[in-house]
Specification:
With about 1400 residues, the protein is of the alpha+beta class. A hairpin with an 8-residue loop joins strand 44 and strand 45. Helix 9 crosses helix 10.
Length: about 1400
């Protein structure tokens, strides 16, 4: 009834959708075969492992053929329903590496590399995605609408009929569910996280498919199985008995087992209809470059080795023997030996010299364990509220040199029916991995920690003597287990000793590959059975001695040294394989027959990398010699399954993960039922998809195979597995190869870490080692180079990074090994601080992104109606029209700036135009209108008399920022000369700055130079002679010595289009470009700025800029003369002495408008960051500032402007006051925020889309988002359009393209020696390929886009915002994608705090 009427589109919330989806799909989630719990009987627990419970183990005699009748035997699997797979602890890295790859082989490989003369670098080839694509039918829903490509389209022409669309969709849904039942039902190792494959694929159907709204939802219950074609994904098989065929609705069942009728299909149909189909942008706007489809990867070699053997058989260990006098539990065994043989030695602790330190007898162990059990249960808390109860977890914290105390505490917990959790001793509060151990203790609910007296005294303590709470740890009560601190139990108190049952005996911690810590629970029956299996395998008898040099708190050291307490024969070496989940997996049996050699295999490393076994000869370089680890444990069943995907049995010549079915394994990961299922409840399948056993197996985390005679061979661990380019490599093998290169000479053995990181969707190998302090940098790099060659020669894989760090700097495990996950985290964070690094991405990153195929843009064939093209508004905008603006501008009646200055000198002679401040903030000099006019006249006289210059000659003005530069400029105009402003050479850096001066003077063809006496002396100094040839300087005029008389007649140009001045600038790419500015353009420029900023004679403007090119020169030298306002000039170099000079001047003169550069803003941000309070106390007030404009020719630095605004907000600076401008070579100022108009807007774009020259707006905080700030308001008289830089066609709104500009103050062209006419025409006289083909545009060379906002400007029109992305000349195009240097610099700067200073100073 709830779906009787379809809801409207979009009326269902995400939460509601998830709730409904889970409710509806829950009925379709299949159950795993054999999921029922084992019925283990606690009352009838016999003393022999093979009769522990009443359940029956069923298995085919061959272990795989389902047609053979099942054999019934005693159970070997405990009653557990929750198990899971994780990998071996990275703490095992402390083992001393025994190089399986012989040192001789490594040396031979290096010699071979040396003969070749260079490293073998994998040649690039045609590559394809690593992701295995299954049949498209299994993953792609049928398109039921031809309008699927249209944005937001729900209907389209050519749509199939209602019944056809519904049939296709339901057919596909059933195929998706049915084809994925394998991974969701019989595969407990499914790589899909959270939910079954069927549920996730059905969700994909619902999220990606839209259907027609039908009046009556179709019912698919009438369709039979034969009418629905089911295509299984390749490699996915399933058991026919265990899996229902969901193609037929009659076979569907709900969670209660009740068959489902047709209404379920109706519900699904209605739910599909309620989902709003996500919009799919048109192809031209939609690019995603982080998916695997855009990455090229090496195609698999058709000649690579493949598994050819028959499917393996499950190997059964020998039957667990029946011994009538075996104790029914471990506690009972302790009671027996403690009472029968109280004086028999149980454990002897040895010192480093092999002398006995302490002997613990069975009697002492029994008595002390009882005392510990009694005190824990009765002396903690009160009688009414004890701190611990039977079944609670307690931590065991004992040092490695005190196994006796640990043994007493361990058995005390067993007697008290508590669950011990042995952990390492925390040495400091910041131990590597200590926080993860704390998380485990917290999840286990541990509140009490047992420890020894010596360990308790050695724990870190606070000033009050209390043990601090370690980071991430729960609050613990530390309980010392020494007998002297404990009360003697009453005579009538005895622990309750029960037969071994399914209760948890202990929890062993396990560190995963990612650094997380899990707790593996081991039941009491598993504990007892494991001890019995070890005793039988090793032939332990009474009175034998075992020598244990392993960690007695976990793994093999715990099982042999603490639990079995028997011994190995001293003349026998019996390697074994073990894991925290499966306990002992296999062990080589002791034998008295010395003539029986152990199993040995010489395997090809190349074959192992492809997961197959190929026997090779020892003469080869790339071989791995393996010895067997014995056979399966008694009472256990072992098989090898594929490490990824469905747990299918491997072939006999295939490497896979070992799985064990036995009572003597772990039960679960504590508190993690979902993860438990994928490890402890694995149902291996044969080739036809049938499970080989009704009982679950446990994944061991070990990679290997079963050889002849049932011998197990271990080739590696899942934790150390690295899949690079589809090939498997083991970290231990890489370590062994590295250590075989001149071992122990440059790095420490055992202090090396190998791990993989993900780069471009594939794993890359990283090697980190601790360098010996006596190694030189040259020796270390030679060793690193040889290591790379050895790894490439033996393993045929490239190393992404090899880093050497100082000794004792890598994070350690409690046992002294390298903590892998912490080391990897430090590497990814950039916090390793290596002393030597060798990066080789070119040898291993072979799946670079595909070259981008550019989509066709709007072309001449497009339909154009008004300002719309291809459905989009053309991206064009303009400032206010200069001709229609009425104002009281008297200067506009003059055509030349020289006439404006003469007019002001006559009408307002004493009005101050310029005021120059020194570093102390006082006035160094000033110029009124008449003073500037008279000084310019004298300079014009000097140019005529001393320089002998004629009209049109070029004059280089080499002045520091100040008054002299302005006077010299107008002196040139009075004389009819063309001025070129040049930055003077730096006195402390002549060698690099003077050549630039010389180049500008030569390229501009200057007839003479004007400068001050100080700079004139500097140009003729010895330092200058060493840098350039001073003999080729043109005549140099010293303007400090001006003539007294004025010129007889001032020059007046005959044509306003003649050249007024040249503007030279060196771009960031090192190109020197000079542009020609005519008198017309100069006057129009000044008028446009005057109107935008509302500049009048009564105004004061503070300027802190370099006045040599672009907008900075115009504001410094020209605008005051044209507009009549007073300019307060602050040379940026003075801020190096007094960083607060600019802001103090703005506050002192109550300036409303100020201009600065990014370097000035950054200097204030860094230099005054901690002085805001002192500046406030000095009366600094920025509340009157209306506009603070940053003059630049680049993308706005939004981070810097925001930091500046935030820092000086407390001093009254309004956030909206700070804005930017934008100009370039062809037009020195296109945008300037000005005084009126809306605030600058900020948008966030997808940085990945920008690489494809596309604009995709995203929300703030989205992944890969890049903030872009508007570059100011378009100046009056300026028109801009966004055009395709290649086709020259106009682009639509919010499309990225080149910014073209049409304005009265455009530059006339480039001034070059060679006169490149083609470049001149292309940059300054371009026309659109279609549309408005008459307008002449200038190409800025910058990429950007226009976006019409919801804001309105002063004229009431909607505001068009211009966003600048970057220069085309600076951008780097790699494989068809465009990268901007500022983005790469930002990424580099963020890696380390010190890099910011280095990069920006460069």
């Amino acid at each position: 009834s709830q779906f009787s009427s379809p809801p409207l589109a979009g009326d269902i919330t995400q939460k509601g959708y998830e709730k409904k989806r889970s409710k509806l799909i829950g009925a379709f989630l299949p159950k795993a075969p054999g999921k029922g719990k084992y019925h283990s009987s606690n009352q009838n627990t016999n003393r022999v492992c093979c009769t522990v419970g009443n359940s029956v183990f069923s298995l085919s005699p061959q272990g795989m053929d389902p047609s053979v009748p099942h054999e019934r035997r005693t159970p070997v699997t405990p009653g557990s329903s929750s198990r899971y797979h994780r990998r071996r602890s990275s703490g095992s890295r402390d083992e001393r590496y025994r190089s399986d790859v012989h040192t001789e082989a490594v040396q031979a490989a290096l010699a071979k590399q040396k003969e070749r003369g260079k490293m073998a670098v994998p040649m690039p080839s045609k590559r394809r995605s690593l992701v295995v694509q299954s049949s498209m039918d299994a993953y792609t829903p049928p398109d039921t609408s031809s309008g699927s490509e249209e944005e937001g389209s729900m209907q389209g022409e050519g749509t199939p009929t209602s019944s056809q669309g519904s049939i296709n969709m339901e057919n596909w849904i059933s195929r998706a569910i049915h084809g994925s039942t394998t991974s969701s039902t019989t595969s407990s190792s499914s790589t899909q996280s959270g939910g079954s494959g069927a549920a996730s694929r059905l969700a994909d159907v619902m999220g990606q498919t839209h259907l027609e709204n039908h009046s009556t939802p179709p019912d698919v219950t009438s369709y039979t199985t034969d009418s629905i074609q089911v295509e299984r994904p390749q490699g996915s098989t399933t058991a026919s008995k265990a899996t229902p065929k969901y193609g037929n609705a009659e076979l569907m069942e709900t969670g209660d087992g009740v068959p489902v009728g047709g209404r379920v299909s109706a519900k699904i149909q209605q739910l599909v209809n309620t989902l709003k189909r996500p919009k799919r942008p048109p192809l031209r706007e939609f690019f995603v470059d982080d998916f695997e489809e855009l990455l090229e990867v090496q195609q698999p070699d058709p000649n690579q080795p493949k598994a050819e053997g028959a499917q393996m058989l499950a190997m059964r260990g020998e039957q667990l023997g029946v011994v009538t006098n075996w104790p029914p539990s471990l506690e009972a065994a302790l009671q027996r030996w403690g009472t029968i043989s109280p004086k028999a030695p149980c454990l002897t602790t040895m010192d480093t010299n092999g002398k006995p330190l302490y002997i613990l007898t069975y009697g002492k162990l029994w008595v002390r364990s009882m005392k510990v059990a009694y005190n824990i249960l009765h002396k903690l808390g009160s009688k009414q509220e004890p701190m611990v109860r039977p079944g609670d977890r307690v931590a065991l914290v004992f040092p490695n040199n005190d196994p006796a105390a640990f043994m007493v505490a361990f058995y005390g917990c067993l007697l008290a029916e508590l669950v011990p959790v042995p952990i390492e001793v925390p040495l400091t509060r910041k131990d590597a991995g200590s926080q993860q151990i704390g998380f485990l203790l917290g999840s286990c609910g541990v509140t009490v920690a047992l420890t020894s007296d010596a360990c308790h005294k050695g724990l870190p303590k606070s000033t009050t003597g209390e043990i601090p709470q370690f980071k991430g740890w729960p609050k613990l009560l530390w309980f010392v287990t020494e007998s002297k601190h404990l009360s003697k139990p009453p005579r009538d108190w005895f622990p309750h000793i029960k037969d071994a049952n399914n209760d948890t005996a202990y929890i062993e911690y396990k560190t995963c590959k990612d650094g997380s810590v899990l707790g593996v629970t081991v039941m009491r029956i598993a504990l007892l059975t494991h001890c019995q299996a070890l005793t039988q395998s090793c032939g332990y008898t009474e009175a034998e001695t075992i020598v244990n040099v392993l960690d007695f708190k976990k793994d093999v050291g715990l099982w042999h040294g603490i639990l079995t307490s028997k011994g190995l024969k001293p003349e026998v070496i019996c390697p074994c394989a073990s894991s925290p989940e499966a306990l002992t997996v296999a062990i080589r049996r002791p034998t008295d027959d010395s003539n029986q050699p152990p199993g040995r295999g010489v395997l090809s490393m190349q074959g192992l990398s492809h997961g197959v076994i190929r026997v090779d000869s020892e003469e080869k370089l790339s071989v791995l010699t393996l010895q067997d680890v014995g056979t399966a444990m008694p009472g256990a069943l072992m098989c090898v399954v594929k490490p990824d995907g469905v747990p299918q049995l491997c072939k006999t010549d295939e490497i896979g993960e070992l799985c064990v079915c036995s009572v003597a394994t772990g039960t679960s990961y504590y508190g993690l039922s979902g993860m438990t299922k994928n490890t402890f409840e694995v149902f291996p399948m044969n080739s036809v998809g049938a499970p080989i056993s009704e009982y679950p197996f446990t994944r061991t985390g070990l990679l290997g195979f079963v050889g002849p005679g049932g011998l197990c061979f271990i080739a590696g661990k899942m934790d150390g597995l690295m899949v690079v380019g589809g090939r498997r490599h083991n970290a231990d093998d890489i370590v062994a190869t590295a250590l075989a290169v001149e071992p122990m000479k440059f790095v420490y053995r055992g202090r090396i870490a190998v791990f993989s990181i993900t780069v471009l969707h594939d794993e890359r190998i990283v090697v980190v080692a601790e360098q010996r302090p006596d190694s030189t940098e040259e020796d270390s790099f030679q060793w690193m180079s040889r290591v790379l060659q050895a790894i490439d020669g033996i393993h045929q894989v490239g190393v992404y990074c090899l880093a050497l760090v100082p000794s004792n700097t890598l994070p350690k495990t409690p046992l002294g090994g390298i903590h892998l996950s912490e080391t990897k985290q430090l590497f990814l964070e950039g916090s390793l601080h290596p002393c030597n690094v060798l990066m080789c991405p070119h040898t291993c990153v072979t799946n670079l992104p595909k070259p981008r195929q550019k989509q066709p843009e709007i072309g001449p064939a497009s339909v154009m109606v008004g300002n719309l093209v291809s459905g989009k508004r053309i991206a064009q905008a303009s400032g206010r029209d200069l001709g229609q603006m009425e104002d009281n501008d008297q200067a506009r009646k003059f055509l030349f700036l020289s006439e404006v200055l003469q007019w002001r000198a006559q009408t307002t002679p004493d009005h101050v135009l310029y005021t120059l401040l020194n570093s102390r903030g006082t006035i160094a000099s000033s110029l009124s209108c008449v003073q500037l006019h008279k000084r310019a006249e004298k300079i014009a006289t000097m140019l005529a008399e001393r320089g002998h210059l004629q009209d049109g000659d070029h004059v280089a003005l080499v002045y520091p920022p100040g008054i002299d530069l302005i006077a010299a400029f107008y002196g040139c105009l009075y004389a009819g000369c063309v001025p070129i402003t040049v930055r003077p050479p730096h006195p402390q850096n002549i060698a690099t700055t003077l050549p630039t001066v010389k180049m500008i003077v030569e390229v501009s063809r200057s007839a003479c130079m004007m400068t001050t006496a100080v700079i004139c002396k500097l140009l003729r100094s010895k330092e200058a002679s060493a840098a350039v040839d001073v003999r080729t300087w043109p005549p140099v005029l010293d303007t400090d010595d001006l003539p007294k008389k004025k010129p007889p007649l001032l020059y007046k140009p005959s044509n306003p289009d003649t050249l007024a001045y040249l503007d030279f600038s060196v771009s960031t790419t090192g190109m020197l470009a000079g542009v020609k500015m005519s008198h017309t353009a100069t006057s129009a420029f000044c008028r446009s700025i005057k109107l935008q900023c509302e500049l009048y004679p009564s105004r004061e403007v503070a300027i802190c800029l370099d006045p040599y090119c672009g907008l900075g020169f115009v504001i410094w030298c020209l605008c005051s003369v044209y507009s009549g306002h007073q300019s307060i000039l602050i040379p940026p170099s003075e801020l190096e002495v007094n960083p607060a000079l600019w802001l103090l001047a703005v506050s002192q003169y109550k300036v409303r408008d100020t201009f600065c550069s990014y370097s000035v803003m950054e200097l204030c941000t860094k230099g005054l960051g901690l002085q805001t309070e002192s500046l406030k106390s000095r009366g600094l007030d920025l509340s009157r500032v209306r506009t603070c404009v940053v003059v630049a020719e680049e993308r706005p630095r939004i981070a810097l402007t925001q930091s500046f605004s935030k820092l000086f907000k407390d001093l009254g600076l309004h956030p909206r006051a700070v804005s930017t401008s934008f100009g370039c070579r062809v037009n020195l100022a296109i945008c300037l925020q000005g005084t009126s108009g809306p605030d600058p807007t900020t948008v966030y774009v997808d940085m990945r889309a920008l690489r494809h020259d596309r604009v995709r707006l995203v929300e703030r905080g989205s992944p890969h988002s890049l903030p872009l700030m508007e570059s100011g308001k378009i100046l009056p008289g300026v028109r801009i359009i966004i055009a395709n830089p290649e086709t020259k066609g106009p682009l639509g709104d919010s499309h990225l393209g080149e910014i073209w500009v049409c304005s009265g103050h455009n530059a006339s062209g480039y001034f070059t020696v060679y006169g490149d006419e083609a470049l001149q025409s292309d940059h300054f006289n371009s026309r659109l390929s279609f549309g408005d083909t008459q307008t002449i545009w200038a190409r800025t060379g910058y990429l950007g886009f226009l976006r019409r906002t919801e804001l309105t400007d002063a004229s009431g029109e909607r505001h068009d915002a211009l966003y600048v992305v970057g220069a085309l000349d600076e951008a780097m195009e790699l494989r068809g994608m465009r990268y901007h240097p500022i983005d790469i610099e930002t990424s580099v700067i963020r890696t380390h705090k010190n890099l910011k200073i280095i990069v920006q100073e460069e």
